[in-house]
Design a protein that fits this description.
With about 260 residues, the protein is an alpha+beta fold. Helix content is about 65%, strand content about 15%. The protein is built from 4 helices and 5 strands. A 5-stranded antiparallel β-sheet has the order 1-2-3-4-5, covered by helices on one side. Strand 1 and strand 2 form a beta hairpin. The radius of gyration is 59 Å and the shape is rod-shaped.
Length: about 260
């Protein structure tokens, strides 16, 4: 081979080597670029996925909290609804009671007036004991009954209390001092009350005794033979001696 051919061959080899290196560099760049791009995309995707999961967990916690709050609110709503229903029922019952009370009051007022009048009549016909105290009680009941500001229930209660006191007079005894007309003169004497049956008196000097005649409405004397018995009754009424059986001149009982 001559020298010219050798140079051409060498030149071709060099040219081919340079072309191969250039081609290899281009191929490398074409391969690496998509890889780098894919890695970047994968990193971004992973970052987004992490952010998405974090955000999902936050929103899940918020959602669960809202669900609990909603359940609590629904429970409170049901409770309030039940309470409202109960209140409406209570209002209806109270309204009915008020209507019934108004009707009862309309019926009670005349009844109380009539009962008070009958109590006054009984006291007027009764034995003359504790007259001032009993008259004050009747007067207080009249004032109470005439007051429109006082509820009927209170008027009824006070009247029943007064009637109870009057009833108890029939089952009790007592002794006290009182001024009564004797022989045309007002005389202070000891009085013994035997329930509502009879009133007996004894003068303070223990020399005279007698009883109240409800039929004649006068105080009448008794024989001195009753002085000891009436004195014993007065002592029992004053609780100066124990109660014992006595024979007192009751006489004929007058129907009041």
């Amino acid at each position: 081979m001559n020298k010219g051919k050798i140079l051409i061959h060498v030149f071709l080899l060099l040219t081919m080597s340079w072309s191969y290196d250039a081609l290899a560099g281009n191929v490398k760049k074409e391969i690496q670029a998509p890889v780098h791009e894919a890695v970047g995309i994968e990193q971004k995707t992973q970052a987004r996925e992490v952010n998405w999961r974090t955000e999902k967990e936050k929103k899940t916690l918020v959602f669960e909290a809202l669900e609990k709050e909603l359940a609590m609110l629904e429970k409170e709503l049901n409770t309030e609804a039940a309470r409202r229903t109960a209140l409406i029922s209570s209002i209806i019952r109270k309204t009915k009671q008020i209507e019934d009370l108004a009707e009862i009051e309309g019926q009670m007022s005349p009844f109380l007036c009539d009962l008070l009048d009958k109590t006054k009549e009984i006291n007027a016909r009764d034995l003359p004991f504790l007259q001032e105290e009993r008259q004050k009680r009747i007067q207080a009941l009249e004032e109470l009954n005439a007051n429109p500001q006082v509820p009927v229930s209170e008027k009824f209660r006070k009247l029943m209390e007064a009637l109870l006191v009057e009833t108890e007079y029939g089952t009790t005894i007592e002794a006290y001092q009182q001024t009564i007309p004797l022989s045309g003169e007002e005389t202070l004497v000891n009085i013994f009350r035997l329930g509502r049956l009879r009133l007996f008196y004894q003068t303070l000097d223990k020399q005279e005794c007698g009883f109240f005649n409800p039929a004649q409405k006068v105080w009448e004397p008794l024989g001195n033979t009753h002085l000891k018995t009436i004195q014993a009754a007065i002592d029992m009424g004053l609780k100066h001696k124990p109660v014992e059986i006595l024979t007192l001149p009751i006489g004929r009982i007058v129907v009041q």
